[in-house]
Known about the structure:
By secondary structure, the chain is α+β, with helices and mostly antiparallel strands.
Amino acid sequence: MSLFKLTSLNLNGIRSATRKGLEAWLEKERPDCMCVQELKAQQADVDGQFEQLAGLQGHFHFAEKKGYSGVAVYTRHEPSDVLIGFGSGEFDAEGRYVELRFDRPGRKLAPKLSIISCYFPSGSSSPERQEAKFRFLAEFYPHLLGLRAQREFILCGDVNIAHQEIDLKNWKGNLKNSGFLPEERAWMSALLRHDAQAANAAADELNAGALRPGTALGGGLVDVYRRLKPAATEEAYTWWSNRGQAWAKNVGWRIDYHLATPGLAALARSEAVYKAERFSDHAPLTVAYDLPI
């Protein structure tokens, strides 16, 4: 059986990434699906240029604000349905979520299957944006719980959270910075906690003020990269600041993820963070799954 190759990449602008050779890399790599974030483009910019990349058909969620955010899933396979946004009045306007459903009633593994591209807000620009990020996390968590109750899925995207100390080079210097705040890391811990562990640990964190209300039930998802590479450090980074010599010195963060339901995560066979070329300030993260589409 051929493996299902799924790539996630924050483009930091689709026009910029394609100028830097993204499409030639896709021709060589040949993923089945690619989830992208930060299109920084509108429908008019995509038409006639970026509806397809290397034979992959794109499905898009654009932000209302020009040159901002935007996500897509490019696929070789025809989806049974496409969902734009997750029902948020505030965040759907920012172009952060597109879900492709590949429902196949006769498929033994995951007859109901979703591939999702999602771009979590960054809180680094201002306290107001950090508060918006917390609102997003609070609103998105029950959506993921509800989705998990109905179907198998893999969410790919720039989550803008480094979960553990091994997920960034300078963790001590970032303890009070957006992307590594205790509340953000506790949210991720809750999302990855399975129900048997959930109640007591989440209650303790909530009582300690480290976990915001609404996340007490474990999400039961799996960080697929960490399942395959539980101890990887510097090879795991997927984003580098443009400041200083972050790329040259590999002062990076792991903030791009494949987050999957347990049944799909168990089918992951290999991972790769591609760093031989640079298409943006993020590196493509590809996971191969033993999964028929």
